[in-house]
Design brief:
The structure holds two protein chains of two kinds. Chain A is mostly helical. Helices cover 69% and strands 2% of the residues of chain A. Chain A is built from 13 helices and two strands, in the order αααααααβαβααααα. A two-stranded antiparallel ribbon of chain A has the order 1-2. Chain B has four domains: 142 residues, Cupredoxins -  blue copper proteins (Immunoglobulin-like); 181 residues, Cupredoxins -  blue copper proteins (Immunoglobulin-like); 202 residues, Cupredoxins -  blue copper proteins (Immunoglobulin-like, Sandwich), CATH 2.60.40; 67 residues, no CATH class. Classes of the chains: A mainly alpha, B alpha+beta. At the A-B interface, helix 4, helix 7, strand 1, helix 9 and helix 12 of A face helix 9 and helix 10 of B.
């Protein structure tokens, strides 16, 4: 069954398309709430509306094409590269997949946060004026006209390429035939959930659904991690036996007795049908090693600890025992991108200020100013643009 | 009356003319290069390798003082095929009839060769040691051969390894060799070397005694354009059969007559081909065909090498089937057996991850006391099978019984089985079983036996097939019965036959030299397989402390597995629970509306009214300007 439906790919595509759908729904919400809303200017609204949809669809399409090409190319190369060290490659890909899923999984549970983040990002993008006059002229005109196309296009493209990379990492140890179905169903599921989000907002039932899907995601990730370690141990054993073990099925002599925690002669995920799903979902092995069992437990302990830390930070604003540190600061990218400085800027009040500003500007100028990098706006600039009035 | 005196005269004459051959064998390492590819240490005698051929006559006495000059290995010597009648302690296998000879010790082998003539050989019986070179040919010459010949020559064939056998054993018996694949040799040895040229005089008949001194593989042997006439197998004369080639398994001997051409025009090739079917894996650079030459005249050139197309060569050969070789003496089929032993041979991976060979589920493990010494010290309890251990696969035979051994080979390999101290009649030899999962099991109901069955001491069993042998228990002592593929012997493919233990006690005693060697080796000379003894049967049956085989692999979940599974499940459930908790927080607390609500409250507390506040919440909960 894993030959036609790879569970990990489904969840990765689901998550990425969900985020893309969130972006589109936020944009549409902007439109609706007064960036040229239906009540103001129906023709412009319609135009912008179409731009958004067009941009997002095209973005998805382009990245699907790129993704298919990328994966196809990699597959033809793959067969040459790893014939001899198949176990080693499988193990590496499992670990990569685990890492990717771990990072993005928890974000799914903060859908409101995600929505909020995108509101801010898009809003910044909409009001920041380009610093160089040259830029303003070159890209300015086109981007002004097609802003509502470019934004979703670029963001969908970016999300989509992320998905392609993730799917590549997660799914490269499966046959090519296992890609199409989960990709399509993942897309449909993500879009569906995005639509629900748009129409009904973040509700409890949606949250439960998201929780359940995240639970599955992490069960899969834990299983993947355990599998990765298992592949590494299998590789070592196969090297020592000169490649004998794998061909002998599930019986005695196919595994290293010194490292075995349990072994049953049936239910082999590599050979027996049905057990491969069990393996995909939970990392089941008919021949478990110390490595595979311990790594499974360690992974869950790690997740539980991270969740614990995140919950603590949300309640108390900082990590336990480290009053000045936040979880974000542990991420190296945080320091690289210089987010610290920016974050010091916007509080929630300023969020609202920002959106108010957008509306005001829009109605003033009747057009939209857009720049490439929306992240560069700072608090001081914002207040300069729109001094607080009483 | 005269008649009796005449007979006595002859007997005395026979005894007086019987010689005593005394040898002093100093066993040590000798550097040699048998296959011309690699210098390595071989185990030689008196600083020379290959080892000498011993030639004696019927009824001679042989005394061999064997001194072990190997620095770090024990040794022993077994005389393959000799009956050792009433001298069981001289037979040679370690922990069966003697203690291993430690370095520095001297062991005396003292026996007479009665009732036998023919081609035999001697080799170390300490593990796979004879693969390192401690082997040689032992010939008992007859006074009156039933055929004529002018020359008497010896040919040994075998395989050669570049590594020494202790190193080979380590990687063979390891959990990283899960299929139990036997080690692959590096070369064939023809008379312990290769590229041999053998000179024949035209018109002469040569008796060529061929011995397979290898550890593992069988060989096909033939001479181009010459036929071989088989006259003797394993020391027993047979009705002459002319064949184009012979197939010889490890341990076996064939003596053939070769009729040299009367007016040869050229020289011929003498080919030995390894039976490739016995190898699990054939490396591409392995020479399986050994080309040697028969030279009639050195004016003509020797033909070139025949190449390495072993499959094609073997297909063209028609070696004799040993089963059809009728003994010259025409010994009739032995009567119905008094005792039948059924052995089912399987290979299994045991709890240490290593593949072992098992007879009826038991893999031979050497006892703590050599079995013969258990017999000699066992008193009245020596007829009780249990004192010999639960892992020596022992069977007690009564004097003069006809014993039948049925051996079902449930392994897809060819196996030559050898019985010490006897020759036996092979009354059934099945063909190969086609299906690995359904080996041919012997069914006595439809069996027919030949009138004059073939007699020898080492017989080949076909893959997934069976053999049935019969012999008479007329030789008191402890006799080993095992596969002569030495790798399988190391894996435990052996049984011990304790024949007429009470008579053995009567007629044989342990000589002082053997006792001293045992003391030096720190091995007890009395007691049961565990070294326990006492005055009661109970103490003799107490096998506490004996050597046993590894327990089988655990099938399914053990306690370890259950604990691991429970732990994983618990951790996963807890993880899922924490995800749930984290997820539910989103709905409850991370809501901007709540926070703005809080802000309003704060402002109100500080005295700010709604009017002075910048923002208000509209009906949607969104902040709007006043």
């Amino acid at each position: 069954m894993v030959n036609v439906f790879n569970v990990q790919i489904f969840f990765v595509v689901f998550r990425e398309s969900l985020e893309a759908a969130v972006i589109v729904s936020v944009l549409l919400a902007f439109l609706k709430q007064g960036l040229g809303g239906a009540t103001d200017d129906p023709i412009v609204y319609k135009r912008l509306y179409r731009q958004i949809w067009f941009g997002s669809f095209l973005g998805v399409l382009v990245c699907l094409i790129i993704g298919a090409a990328f994966i196809g190319a990699f597959y033809s190369l793959k067969n040459d590269i790893w014939a001899k060290s198949e176990d080693l490659w499988e193990g590496i890909f499992c670990i990569i997949a685990t890492v990717l899923i771990t990072i993005m999984g928890l974000a799914m549970l903060r859908i409101n946060k995600m929505k909020e983040k995108w509101r801010v990002k898009l809003a910044r993008a909409l009001i920041k004026t380009p610093t160089k006059k040259l830029e303003r002229f070159k890209i300015g005109y086109l981007s002004k006209k097609y802003a509502m196309f470019l934004l979703p296009f670029i963001t969908c493209l970016r999300e989509g390429l992320e998905a392609v990379v993730f799917v590549g990492g997660v799914g490269l140890n499966s046959p090519a035939s296992s890609f199409p179905i989960p990709v399509i169903t993942g897309l449909m599921a993500g879009v569906g959930v995005g639509a629900i989000l748009y129409f009904f907002g973040a509700s409890t039932s949606l949250q439960i659904f998201l929780i359940i899907s995240t639970c599955f995601l992490y069960l899969i990730a834990a299983g993947l991690f355990s599998r990765g370690i298992w592949f590494f141990e299998n590789y070592v054993y196969s090297q020592k036996t000169g490649g004998d073990a794998a061909e002998n099925g599930s019986g005695p002599g196919t595994y290293d007795i010194a490292r075995s925690v349990w072994h049953v002669n049936c239910c082999n995920p590599n050979i027996d049908h049905g057990w491969d799903i069990f393996n995909a979902l939970f990392g089941w092995q008919n021949s478990a090693t110390y490595g595979s069992v311990i790594s499974y437990n360690l992974y869950w302990v790690l997740i539980i600890s991270i969740i614990g830390l995140m919950l603590y930070e949300e309640k108390n604003g900082h990590l336990p025992f480290l009053k000045s540190t936040k979880l974000n600061e542990l991420n190296p990218m945080y320091h690289i991108k210089g987010k610290k400085a920016k974050q010091a800027g916007l509080t929630e009040d300023e969020h609202e200020l920002l959106f108010k500003e957008i509306k005001a500007k829009r109605s003033q100028e009747g057009k939209i100013v857009v720049v490439d990098d929306a992240d560069e706006i700072s608090s001081t600039e914002l207040t300069a643009l729109h001094p607080i009035e009483k | 009356m005269h008649f009796i005196y005449v007979i006595w005269l002859f007997i005395w004459a026979g005894i007086i003319t019987a010689e005593t051959h005394t040898f002093h064998f100093n066993v040590s390492y000798v550097t040699a290069n048998p296959d011309g590819l690699l210098d390595r240490r071989m185990i030689g005698i008196n600083n020379h390798w290959p080892n000498p051929t011993i030639r004696v006559k019927k009824n001679d006495r042989v005394e061999i003082y064997l001194t072990n000059f190997l620095e770090n290995r024990n040794t022993s010597l077994h005389f393959h095929g000799l009956f050792q009648k009433d001298t069981n302690a001289m037979d040679g296998p370690e922990m069966v009839t003697q203690c291993p000879i430690p370095p520095g010790e001297t062991f005396l082998y003292n026996f007479t060769v009665t009732d036998q003539v023919g081609t035999y050989w001697y080799h170390s019986h300490s593990g796979s040691q004879y693969g390192d070179g401690l082997r040689g040919v032992f010939i008992i010459e007859d006074d009156d051969y039933p055929f004529d010949f002018q020359q008497d020559s010896v040919l040994t064939v075998g395989e050669h390894y570049h590594k020494e056998t202790p190193a080979i054993m380590k990687s063979f018996m390891s959990r990283y060799n899960p299929t139990g694949a036997e080690p692959i040799p590096q070369n064939i040895l023809f008379n312990e070397t290769n590229n041999v040229t053998w000179t024949l005089n035209p018109g002469e008949t040569t008796l060529l005694r061929i011995v397979n001194v290898g550890l593992f593989v069988a060989h096909y042997i033939y001479i181009e354009d010459h036929t071989l006439t088989i006259v003797e197998i394993d020391g027993g004369y047979v009705e002459q059969v002319e064949v184009d080639s012979i197939y010889i398994a490890p341990g076996q001997r064939y003596s053939v007559l070769i009729q040299a051409k009367k007016s040869p025009q050229q020289n011929y090739r003498f080919i030995c081909v390894l039976d490739y079917e016995m190898l699990d894996l054939i490396p591409s650079d392995l020479q399986l065909v050994s080309t040697n030459w028969v030279q009639y005249t050195n004016t003509k050139e020797l033909p070139g090498s025949i190449g390495n197309d072993y499959k094609k060569i073997i297909e063209s050969l028609h070696p004799a089937e040993e089963f059809n070789l009728i003994p010259l003496e025409k010994v009739p089929l032995y009567p119905e057996p008094d005792y039948t032993i059924e052995l089912n041979f399987t290979m299994e991976v045991l709890g240490d991850g290593i593949t072992y060979a098992l007879f009826n589920g038991i893999s031979y493990v050497p006892p703590k006391v050599p079995t013969l010494m258990t017999v000699l010290s066992g008193g009245e309890y020596s007829t009780v099978k249990e004192i010999y251990g639960s892992n020596t696969n022992s069977f007690v035979l009564q004097p003069n019984e006809v014993v039948e051994i049925i051996l079902n080979n449930m392994d897809p390999g060819k196996h030559p089985f050898h019985l010490h101290g006897h020759t036996f009649q092979t009354i059934v030899k099945s063909k190969s079983g086609e299906n690995e999962d359904e080996p041919l099991i012997y069914n006595p109901e439809n069996a027919t036996f030949p009138e004059y069955p073939m007699i020898r001491d080492t017989v080949q069993t076909n893959p997934n097939g069976h053999i049935v042998i019969r012999f008479k228990a007329e030789n008191p002592g402890v006799w080993f019965f095992h596969c002569h593929v030495d790798w399988h012997l190391e894996q435990g493919l052996a049984i011990t036959l304790i024949e007429s233990p009470l008579i053995t006690q009567e007629k044989q005693t342990l000589i002082d030299n053997h006792k001293n060697v045992c003391e030096s080796a720190k091995i007890p000379v009395q007691g049961n397989a565990a070294g326990n003894f006492g005055s009661s049967k109970k103490s003799w049956l107490n096998l506490h402390g004996e050597n046993v085989q590894f327990s089988p692999l655990p099938v399914g979940f053990t306690l370890k597995g259950y604990i691991a599974m429970a732990l994983c499940t618990f951790v996963a459930l807890y993880g899922v629970f924490s995800i749930y908790k984290y997820g539910m927080e989103d709905v409850n607390s991370d809501n901007i509306e709540n926070k703005i609500e809080k802000l309003h409250k704060l402002l109100a507390d500080c005295g700010e009214t709604d009017e002075s506040a910048m923002f208000n919440l509209n009906s949607n909960g969104e902040a709007v300007n006043q």
